[in-house]
Structures are given as structure tokens and as C-alpha cells.
Amino acid sequence: MSEENVMKVLDQGVNPIFMDPDPDKAREFFRKKPRAMVDKRMNEKEVVEKFIPDGCYLGIGGFGANRIPTAVIHEILRARRKNLGFLGHTSTHDFELLCAGKCFNRLDAAYIVGLEARGLSPNARRYMESGEVQVTEWTNYSLAARLKAAAEGVSFALVRSMLGTDTFKMSGAKVVECPFTGKKFAAVPALWPDVAVIHVHEADMYGNAVFRGISVADLELSRAAKHLIITAERLVNNFTIRNNPTATSIPFYLVDAVVEVPYGSYPGNMPYLYFSDEEHLAQWMKVEKDLKEFEKFLDHYIYGVSCFEEYLERCGGLKKLKELQKLETLVEK
Amino acid sequence: MAPEYNMMEMMICVASRYLEDGKTVAVGTGAPCAAAMLSQKTQSPNLIILFEAGGISPLLPQMPISVGDSRTFFRAVMAAGMTEMMTTCSRGLVDYAFLGGAQIDKYGNINSTVVGDYYKPKVRFPGSGGANDFASLCWRTMIMTVHSKSRFVEKCEFLTSPGFLTGAGAREAAGLPEGGPYKIVTDLAVMGFDEETKAMRVESLHPGVDLGKVKAETGFELVIPKQISSTAPPTDTELKILREEVDPLKLVIGRA
Question: Looking at the whole model, is its pTM more than 0.95?
Fold first, then answer.
């Protein structure tokens, strides 16, 4: 190969890449992944026990406090999971929860600590400022591109983000020169999370899943994750899926477990069904300021309840959920 | 008599005037979103608002709380995803990025990641989110922020999202596509950038603000042109629409 046809590495970020970007190792895994269309229904305790062990690398679908799988995250806390790797992509309340349980010690960070217009989570800040977490910096798109590369079965993606910044310096990306044009791009390594959890509107018991509204990075995440857990607002029969296959977002063979969780994105927003519980989210950020108060709060809402339904009860139950349904703008009134 | 308004209302009204009709703008939550909505309801009815999580050109019923909440794709033309939005920026189809700022320096670079040591920070902020992507890929970056010495610094402690980096030619050298910061709208003034040096320049002063005040609240030497104009105050129409239609719950304008 002549000199000018070589893709040169011109610069690189200093922080670690937590997951192996080798596509053939991923293929080896997927070669053995069962394809059978079998009943995959489980409860949240079973999925955490079976698919989310200490130390694994976890990705969460949705957008922080929109279409998130809250029930499984709560169960991760109750199961006292530790030393997880975490995909800090558009993460807000999900991140706040995992910080409350100090569940992870490795983090790919694009958006963390904050809850967008609501402000910053005092406890998530405390955890991130403790120095206990190993962090590699990215951007929302570069992390989506890493998942996209994994979903495509290739070892990296090229983006024009991050160039020239400290975000790049603190990443695990490399600046490469295009062999065709000589232009510079940031090469970002494919990311195959050990497990991802995605909340959807409907799924059948085999894992065929339908979500409505924006996809964020869930199409990429569902294809990149080695294990995939679906939590669904409601279960539908397979005929409903087959009757309208255009609507299917995720086919069953990607999915390892299906958990039915009505109001499963609470206190987050679930498009077309219910809006976020802003009072409860504000309560979180307020009580986090005082560690003692926060411990009591966590005992009351998470550690002291046996299941997600009990948490919903403690937050105001059906009465509260009906109010949130009324606030949901996408429901035609 | 001139209408009364607070500094957040002033910033939003002024910022809204820079968004031209028929252009595309990628917005963050809070003040930038309010400015885009106001622009759409006043001078730019065909402004195309885009959200990084996937909402394309929604008919925003009210202010979103999150750039991924239901409102961001209410009666949208498409509910897409992050890759669709960011690759649209990368292809050169997005005219404006509209961001809030934490720390900003004289070349319009933004810090929203850390204060202090990266590995054991004094304050950890959210990081880039989509801001670095937008500031890298959109044609013009607009920034709204409160004007103070702690925010307007000589050099960002951490360069999260690119402005003109270290000045003229630096974006090109780093491999970034053409683009960069266009206007910085604060509670005191509107700043632009010197064509040659790419350093921040005062362009217009808000009513009742003198140049001394702006200099005192800026932690670096601003380029001072011979002519500095006066910012037109918010009009009655702008304020009425902002208060009654854009932000009736005072989520943003109540923060002043």
C-alpha cells in the first residue's frame, strides 16, 4: 500500500476504552446467542439475577427521564449491584438512581449528573466528585455512533465531533486522516454493552417490541447489546405484532427477557401515556442535599419496598398516575 | 412608557431576533428553546426547530422540560432519533445551534464538564451532552448566558464544546468543519467575533448598560469596535407572546 493510502492516527484521547471493540469477538458471542422464539417473560428480580451481575457493563434506553426502565434500575439497587460499567448517554434520573446505589465504578460519560432544565443532582455530583469512578469522556452523538458501529458489526465509527477539544483529550477516541481526502475525523470504537434495558410501549412474550415516538439511540443500543431486557407497559399477543410488523422496533431474537411493567417509566415521561412527575423528581434533588435525609428517602422509596408497584403506591398510586396521564401532551384531548 | 421586563425576558427577546425564517435550529432546553419558540411566533413562522433526541419540527404546545420529552415531538413532522439528528448536522443541513453556557472564553469555547482537576473535580457538570456535537457540526452557534466575571474567562478550565478554539485557523487545523460561534447574548450585551482574530467583540449594549459594566463583568479583554450599537429593548408584542404563549408557567422567565 502506498504511503498516501494509509489511514494515519494523528492524535488520541488518554482515557480507557472499557469494552473490547473487536467485531469478531462480538460475532462469536452472537453466534451462540439463542434464537428460539420462546416465552421470555420474567420479573425484574429474575432479570437482574440472571443478566446483570456485579461488574457487567450496562446501557439504559430512553432519554434520562423519558421512556426509562425504572423498575429494573430500582431492582439493581435493591440487589446491591456494584462495580458496573455504565453507558452515561443522555442519562438523568437513571444516572441519579445508579449513583444513589453507588452501583458503577466505570463510566462512559456524555451527559451525566444533570436533569436538564431541572438542575443538577447533588448526590450524583457528590459521587462523581469523590474520584471513585473511572471516567472516559464522550458526547451524545459519539456514544450513539459507538453503538451504531457495534450494531453494524464493525470496530469503529467516524465522527466530526470532539475534534480540538478537551472532550476529545479525555476520551478514548483517535484522530485519523482520511485515506481518500486527507481530512481529519474522530474514530470512535464500537461499543457492545454486556446488557441493555429498554422500556417500550408494547411487547409480546417472545420479545418483539414496539415503542412509539422518538427512538433516541435505542435502535442502535438494542442491536449492540449482548443481552437485552425489554420492559413493556403492556404485553400483547404475537398476532398483534404480526398484524402490523411495520411498527416493530426490536425483533424477538435480540431479546433475552420481557418484563411487563405498567407505568414502568415513572417518574419519567412515557410518550402518549403519561408525563413525568416533576414534583417527585424535584423532591429527589431537594432531599439529596442532606445525606441522612437522603438515606431515609431511599429506604422509604426503594430499599424498603419489595417491588415497583409498591413504589408507585408510595408515590401516590393510581390517583397520581391518572393526574400524569392528564398532563401528557401527546394524548388528544 | 417603555415596557418593564426582567433580564431573562430581555435575553430571550434579543436572541429570538437572530433566528431567520426558514432556517433550521437545534435547541437545548430552557432559554434557547424559549427564544426559538418566540422567534417562531413573531418574525420567523417557518423556523424549523430540531431536538437532539429526535423531535423534528414539532408544533411545540409549551416549553419542554427535557430535549427528549413528549412535547419535543408534539405534532412533529417526524419522531426520529439521535443519529438522524446529528448526521443531519454533519451533512450541513443545520444552520443554528442554540446553546446555554456555563463557562465561556474569548474564542467562544464552552466549558460544561468540570471545574478543577478532571480526575477529582471540584465541581462536576453534565459534560457535553449534545453540545459539542452541535458546536462542531452546525453552521452557526448561538449562546445565551448570564454575563459575569466567573463565567466569562480568559481560557476555559476544560474545553467541552468548540468555539474558535485558540483563534483564527484553529478550527480548520483541528479538522472541524466551517462553523463556530456567531452571537453571544447575555443580560448586558450582544457579542460577536472579530473576523480576523476570532476574538470576542462587543456589538451592542442593552438599554441602561454602559461599556464599563460589560468590561467589569468580563474576565478577558474584549475587542471594542469604534461603533457599538444599542440593543433594541423587547417590544410589547414580544413580551406579550413570551409571557402568554411561550412560557406561561414562567419556567424560564421566572428564573431571572
Answer: yes
